[in-house]
Design a protein that fits this description.
This protein is an alpha+beta fold and 302 residues long. Helix content is 41%, strand content 20%. The protein has nine helices and 13 strands. The longest helix has 22 residues, at 261-282. The relative contact order is 0.13.
Length: 302
Amino acid sequence: MSYGRRVSVPLDVPLDVLPAGSVVTGIVARTGGHRSAVFEVRLAGSDPLIVKRYADGWRWTQAKEVHVYGLLESAGVGPTPRVVRVDRERAITVLTTVPGTPMSQTALTPEAVRAAYRRIGRFQAALHRIAMPAFGYVTTGITEPVADNPTYMRRQFSLRLNDFLAAGGPADLHAAMTATVTAQQRCLDACTGAVLCHNDLHEGNVLVDAAGTVTGFVDVENAVAADPLLDLAKTVQYDLDASPDKHAALFEGYGPLPPRGHERLRLYRLYHSLELWTYFASVGNTGPLPAIADDLRSLVDR
């Protein structure tokens, strides 16, 4: 292992995980959150690499990330990071670097935004061609697998609705959401098989270059095996400015929706908004709750 001049090596970056002969010219901390410490390691004569060290309580996400990126690579779906090396003993993964900056942090022209959302739609369409053997949360397999979509989504809604009530959510809104889910049960039958879903594909996880062209997709730690419309619904629901142009471009890139697609989208948007409400409540961040409750009311059947 060689080092470039005046390279300060953080303690979280053991450079022996890098390919033999690597010449390090710089190390830059990247956003990692509470689950991992993430560094971009710049190398002489080759592309930089990402080194991730997972926190002790989140070591299981290392195996999940490696598994999901492996599924994407095998299916030719991307561009996404490729796994270079896995050190399970030290909970370190080395990944290729996808160039670009998060779309959420980049000022783009309206034309570039529409083009990006069409590309997001094409990526999701390709992702959703990866069939999964059951419905459930993805790790290195499927946790608590369920054979069919109605059973899986009834379980998920029940969990979130119980959390909503336990956290002090308005009883009338809880009743309205429960009635909506009950009334819309039949649309859940329209999904006949689970596919791989990114389950967090918002602008923060889409990378673009200076011209606004999408360069890659990252962060698969929330992946699930589910109805593809559940995935599309999260992208729509997490679009902060609720732009019709963005949504139109997304669906243009994705292609025709499956049977009862719009009904499923609306129901799943309710699920994601409910999930977001319960998340903020669970961490004690009450500020966003009234606005999310208003969104929930707009999504229930009347």
